[in-house]
Amino acid sequence: YLTLDMVMGDWISCCWRNMFACINLLRILNMLTKWKHSRIMLLVVFKSAPILKRGLRVRHAMLQLYILKLLKLQSRYFGRQWRKNNMPIMSAIYQKVRHRLTDDWAYGNDVDALPWQFQVEECSLRTNVDQFNQRRYCNHWIDPEYKPVDNCLMSVLSQPVQLSDEFKQNYEKWLEEEVFSVPINWSHVLAR
């Protein structure tokens, strides 16, 4: 996979905007998933490893580094067979990505983490973000069109309605114009 020729190979001209857009996308993905097991599990579940492995063919050292970082995050969840079949990638991770003293990325010993705990972790993170937005931006950050609507018939009917004084004065006139003067074909209405 990562031979010296691939890392330091001849530079084929490419669109540098596309290259650095890909690198920045990988950097953002790395920031979003680092130390968050629920998001790492989402990468594993949605099978990002084959896509990332194909990205290692690109001869750009920084792109390969961020791909290796993402594969390192996921490697403990892949299983022994994947690690055995992808030893060149595991070796490249070991050689090129920085490690911590207590890093156990190469071993699948995270058995105590249960899948449903990741959903709880993600929900608590979402709750914390929502609380921050409520504290910081009050109710002004929610577009009124997207605010929740009360759909319960009893609670809507039990709310007091304030009628304007003008409407109260012209109530009989409104009844004559809008209700009594309009002919209603009840057989047609009831047939629907």
TrEMBL record:
Annotated SMART domains: DUF3402 (SM01293)
GO biological process, alphabetically ordered: cytoskeleton organization
Domain of life, per lineage: Eukaryota
Residue ranges constituting the Far11/STRP C-terminal domain according to the UniProt record: 1-171
GO CC entries: cytosol
Residues spanning the signal sequence: none
Name under which the protein is recorded: SJCHGC08989 protein
Organism: Schistosoma japonicum
